[in-house]
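The following block was generated as part of the benchmark described in Methods. Ligand: magnesium ion.
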Amino acid sequence: GKTIGIIGGGQLGQMLSFSAKKAGMRVIILDPNPTCSAGQVSDEQIVAPYDDIEAIEELADKADVLTYEFENVDLNALENVSSKVEIPQGTELLRITKDRIREKTFLQKSGLKVAPFAEINKFSDLEKKINEIGYPAILKTCEGGYDGKGQLVLNSEKDLVEADEIIKLGQCILEGKINFQMECSVMVGRNLRGEITVFPVSENIHRNQILHESIVPARISSELQEKAKETAVKVAESLNLCGILGIEMFIGEDNEIYINELAPRPHNSGHYSIEACNFSQFDIHNRAICNWPLPKIELLKPVVMVNVLGQHVEKTQELISKKPTWQFHDYGKGEIRVDRKMGHVTILTDDINKTLDEIVSTHVWD
Ligand code: ATP
Ligand code: MG
Ligand code: MG
């Protein structure tokens, strides 16, 4: 099998590694942390910073195919090794998805709907643009944010006093807040032969802007599910996608689909696919970047996935020993911190509502 080099060794790298090894591929991880999640299960780890030019050259020399598990990869470092190793995802996908303004501009040009937005570089831009966008709005840094970090919700003029804290972090985007009936996501995979495979729609429930639960299939009409999947295919084609892409969407009160953001990699809301589908999002990513043919995805059973953050670890470990059908994934992260994603639980079920009630009754996620 091929040797896959992955920049980044977090849980996504770990689950990519498990999947790759199952398919007979070898994996080399680049991560500065010698005890990172993925390093523990890979064939080899290069311990160095993500943007270390020499380390990326070493990874390129040793691997047949280069990929990444997060979008803030150094583009120059990748371009520097593009003659040494296959980078089937290219660098354009990263260039677009690492910057919120570039991403939304691209989506709009592709004929897709996004929240109204404006570029903010200084406080006076915000004073001007907030009148166009209106309240409530959200101010976000263009690059590097996750789990709602680097964001400020603006409900009224008095919230503007906190805006400088965000603006000083770098270029920002001001987004109108979408009135949504549901947040959902779709994982889509594509290889360079142009074969596309789409996963079922996941309904996503966030707490404090961090994904809490994913429910699949999403509890919306089949028409809306089809519309969400068609949107995902359109995005994949517009991007000339290779690999897996996570598409976060809002289903508006108006039944229109607005794209929130793109993740050019496996996505937390797609973890359910490990147990609930014939192939997981990680399997599809690895197959796609190796240019293997892609299977049609089937949902084998409805499923709920719950995230286990630092504050849930102790109670979860106690709980799963009592739940015969709950599957716990421990990412093997050393340091337990509040709100840090430490693992997740997957529950296959014939009765979603009953399972959701059961999750509540454990009091683990209170
Ligand atoms: P992630 O961890 O998914 O990468 P992030 O830090 O990039 O998160 P976003 O996905 O942009 O953050 O926003 C986090 C959450 O805030 C969204 O899932 C959604 O609940 C809410 N949100 C963000 N932007 C909007 C918007 N324009 N309208 C309504 N809700 C929004
Ligand atoms: Mg994000
Ligand atoms: Mg998000």
